[in-house]
Design a protein that fits this description.
heterotrimer; A mainly alpha (241); B mainly alpha (278); C alpha+beta (345); A: MetI-like fold; 12 helices; 0% strand; flat; B: 278 residues; mainly alpha; binds adenosine-5'-diphosphate; binds magnesium ion
């Protein structure tokens, strides 16, 4: 269960950051007014302490009552309620159900919360790497492709994406390293509910069952090394040449 | 390319607007944090004061007067600085040896070192606390925090430095050998000047990782060596209470690093790619 | 100035042997060139002399001292790298002074020696510049200057001209020759370019797959190549090779009896046009390269083997025409068919 959750969280974060990172990098990789400031704004989340990140998201943004999530939903409900009093369209809005804000403290949804906050923090990282890499893309190749009549989409697929293979590998590798041992976010978000990843499970054991903690610890060591062998061997070696 | 690329008028307006929107969305949580820190705890949870309220510095004065912010901040500066320094002192020679005198297993060692980063820290919490508290008496000392921060960051430090050092042509190091430079001289007079940019990036990034570390700093300290992470931990009240105070403390903990990040953007971008993307 | 002696030196990289027992004597003050195709082990041998690479077995002596376990800087050798390998963060002056500083030479002595070397190489004006603000040729001079100031017993050059453009290459080649004349020191020079080898060397060492193929003066190698490999490597355009079957039927009679079973080599510049009757070899004209001073005539034998004749004037025939050539029998080389080794003495 904890393993499954670990895998779900890490892989979702990886997929999301890579896709978002790619899109944003392509978007920002042109000249437009205020590009420098946009870059600064985009990079900022990466520097936020994970503990602050978790507190900020789970309390002030995602909280179903007091966070922006709760406030927005209740605001919407009030708006709908207000609209019901109008003639004609009121009938239409009367059919709307009352919305309930999602609580991100339940077992399953709190995993989403973790995914959301970590994605927020690490997408800038992906954007930066992809942007750096895009800037080194061979323009003459693109020009040749244009002369060959390739359109923008086929240029992107045939030239840009292969060029980004290595940076994508780096993003995946480095994030795996950091997220497999993810702790602060899980702890803050999931205190007391069932949303555990492996590190958190071990942490829990540590406080009441040293034997189980050690056993899980050793299991985690083995798991980390297995992942390391597969992931780093494939990705890491190519990086070092 | 740019000369002939057909960008429609709509595109010319749309792209920047889209980019700005996304940037603002990403920055919004940080903005919200700072924004909320100027509300009183009571105001912070009232919808009617969501956007319009009377700003107050109460949270900040409260934080410095009652929560001893500066002590935590100074501890953070001390531990992060020294941990970064030590990590470089160990990491530079190690990465140097790996880059210029590799054995058949150097790459495996690097990969393995990095894989230790994937270990859940919790697995060694018990032995660590037992060892430091009961046997060595180092619990809650700056020295312990510095050592732990240094050690957990060492794999990344060595790996980053390795990728930077590898970019230095081997010929130049060999020219130094022909010129009769000592090993120490080689590091001091050739390696460090040549890899200066990479070393600076590594140092900055390590400093940030140290500053943000919240597992060991929270668990191996009580008061004397407690860092800003510990301060956050202490202020993390049950849901919804003290949003204003929490925001102020968080802002004060995060601001130095975010600002540092802004000013050293160039080096950081280079550092963040871990030397592997050009 | 010192001699260099190499005794049965072998080198392996992780089980892969790349040098197979090299024996070589380099005399004091001699200019020796290692030449051979890329990957034959020239750099490896040079780097073993420099001390940048360990020998797997065998001995290297500089003067009469075994230097196998002596640090590079203590061997009295200086090296000029193909990439120049200048310290990019130091000025030209400091690049040249760096080695002297390591030996705690007095500052005014350093200054004197650096300026003297700079004078010789005409780089005095650039002493305060950074290497990145120099052209390729100027960088090359600084690299040579760095070697000169250390006043070494032996100079080592690893393909020092290969990063220069053609014109500069010729000019720098001359300067290196002058430098050798002036300093009279022992120089070992690696190149894959046979023209550099021919023009610079007192003694050429031809390497092939980690073995010495032939050692000799340039003219020796040109006139009496020890194998087909050397024959093909030295001289431009390359020597033509034929089998007796491709020669004109009774040509064998005009040559030595061994010709029947041998590979026959004739340099393009030794082929002269002749009548069909007096010919050694015939071919149909394929292409003429007119170079003004001379013309390179490309032909094919009846069996389709291409060969080249170097003629003073381009022939006045068109493509496909039959042409006949002869050569002075003393300029015809014979090589054993199996081993490729020289037969005629
Ligand atoms: N560090 C090394 N590790 C393994 N093989 C090497 C190494 N250096 C050179 N070699 C091999 O040794 C042979 C000779 O190389 P080298 O001396 O550089 O050739 P050259 O300078 O004549 O072009 C080549 O086959 C090369 O692949
Ligand atoms: Mg070579």
């Amino acid at each position: 269960m904890a393993i499954q959750n670990s895998v779900l969280i890490v892989s979702s974060i990886l997929i999301l950051t890579v896709i978002l990172g790619l899109l944003i990098a392509v978007l920002v990789n042109r000249t437009f007014p205020g590009r420098g400031i946009v870059r600064v704004l985009l990079i900022s989340p990466f520097f936020v302490m994970p503990a602050v990140n978790a507190v900020l998201w789970i309390n002030m943004i995602l909280d179903p009552v007091l966070g922006l999530n709760g406030l927005a939903v209740s605001g919407l409900n009030e708006l709908v309620a207000g609209l019901r009093d109008f003639p004609v369209i009121g009938g239409f809005f009367a059919m709307w159900p009352e919305l309930h804000p999602i609580s991100f403290r339940a077992t399953q949804t709190s995993a989403y919360a973790v995914i959301m906050m970590v994605t927020w923090q690490w997408t800038p990282f992906a954007v930066l790497i992809f942007m750096t890499s895009l800037q080194s893309e061979d323009e003459s190749q693109k020009e040749a492709a244009m002369l060959d009549g390739a359109n923008a989409w086929s240029q992107f697929i045939n030239l840009t994406v292969p060029h980004l293979a290595r940076p994508i590998a780096i993003v995946v590798m480095i994030q795996s390293i950091f997220h497999l041992s993810l702790y602060a976010e899980i702890e803050i978000v999931s205190r007391g509910n069932g949303n555990k990843n492996l590190p958190y499970l071990i942490g829990e054991f540590t406080s009441n069952n040293i034997g189980a903690a050690s056993a899980t610890g050793i299991f985690a060591v083995i798991l980390a090394n297995v992942v390391a062998i597969f992931l780093l061997r494939m990705v890491g070696k190519s990086l070092m040449d | 390319m740019a000369a002939v690329a057909q960008t429609s008028k709509l595109g010319k307006v749309l792209w920047p607007v889209l980019a700005w929107t996304i940037a603002l969305i990403f920055f919004f949580p940080i903005f919200w944090l700072v924004f909320t820190s100027f509300k009183t705890d009571a105001d912070a949870v009232k919808p009617e004061y969501l956007f319009f309220f009377t700003p107050t510095l109460e949270n900040y004065t409260n934080m410095t007067e009652n929560y001893d912010y500066w002590r935590f901040a100074i501890n953070s500066v001390i531990t992060s600085t020294f941990a970064t320094g030590f990590a470089l002192i160990v990491g530079v020679p190690a990465a140097y040896a790996m880059a210029f005198d590799p054995s058949r297993h150097t790459k495996d060692i690097l990969v393995w070192m990095l894989s230790t980063k994937m270990l859940p820290a919790a697995a060694v919490l018990y032995p660590m606390t037992f060892l430091t508290k009961n046997l060595l008496g180092l619990f809650d000392t700056h020295f312990l925090v510095i050592m732990v921060l240094c050690l957990i960051n060492l794999p990344i430090v060595i790996w980053m430095l390795f990728t930077y050092f590898k970019e230095i042509p081997k010929d130049i190091i060999e020219a130094g050998k022909m010129d009769g430079v000592s090993t120490w001289g080689e590091i001091k007079d050739i390696l460090i000047p040549l890899a200066w940019g990479g070393i600076a990036s590594t140092a900055l990034l390590t400093f940030i990782f140290c500053w943000n570390e919240a597992y060991w700093t929270v668990r191996l300290t009580t008061i004397d060596a407690a860092t800003l992470s510990k301060l956050i931990e202490g202020n993390r009240a049950p849901e919804g209470l003290f949003f204003g105070r929490l925001s102020a403390v968080s802002t004060a903990a995060v601001a130095p690093i975010v600002v540092l990040g802004w000013f050293c953007q160039k080096q950081l971008v280079q550092g963040l790619t871990f030397g592997a993307v050009k | 100035m010192a001699s260099v002696t190499i005794r049965d030196v072998k080198k392996s990289y992780g089980g892969q042997q790349v040098m197979h027992g090299i024996d070589l004597d380099v005399n004091e003050g001699e200019f020796v060139v290692f030449v051979g195709p890329s990957g034959c082990g020239k750099s490896t041998l040079l780097r073993m002399i420099a001390g940048l690479e360990e020998t797997s077995s065998g001995e290297i002596l500089i003067g009469d001292k075994v230097v196998n376990n002596v640090a590079p800087a203590k061997r009295g050798v200086a090296m000029v790298f193909q990439s120049y390998a200048l310290y990019p963060h130091m000025t030209v002056f400091n690049n040249m002074a760096f080695g002297l500083k390591q030996t705690k030479t007095a500052p005014d002595e350093i200054d004197r020696r650096v300026r003297e070397a700079a004078e010789v190489l005409q780089i005095t004006d650039y002493l305060d510049r950074s290497p990145r603000n120099l052209s390729g040729g100027q960088r090359q001079r600084v690299a040579i200057g760095r070697a000169i100031v250390r006043d070494p017993e032996v100079f080592l050059f690893d393909e020092p001209l290969s990063n220069l453009d053609a014109a500069l290459r010729v000019q720098t080649r001359l300067e290196i020759a002058r430098l050798h004349e002036r300093l009279q020191s022992t120089m070992i020079y690696v190149t894959h370019d046979q023209v550099e080898a021919m023009t610079l060397a007192d003694k050429i060492v031809v390497l092939r797959d980690g073995r010495i193929e032939q050692v000799g003066s340039p003219i020796d190698l040109y006139e009496r190549p020890a194998s087909m490999f050397v024959a093909g490597f030295i001289g431009s355009p390359k020597m033509n090779f034929f089998t007796s079957a491709e020669l004109v039927v009774n040509a064998i009679k005009k040559l030595a009896a061994v010709a029947v079973v041998a590979n026959i080599g004739i340099r393009p510049e030794h082929l002269t046009a002749s009548t069909e009757k007096g010919a050694l070899i015939g071919g149909t004209l394929d292409l003429v390269e007119q170079l003004g001073e001379y013309a390179l005539v490309h032909l094919n034998t009846a069996a389709g083997v291409p060969f080249i004749a170097k003629m003073e004037k381009p022939p006045e025939v068109t493509k496909g025409a039959q042409m006949w050539f002869t050569a002075n029998p003393s300029l015809v080389h014979f090589f054993a068919q199996e081993s490729g080794l020289r037969i005629n003495t």
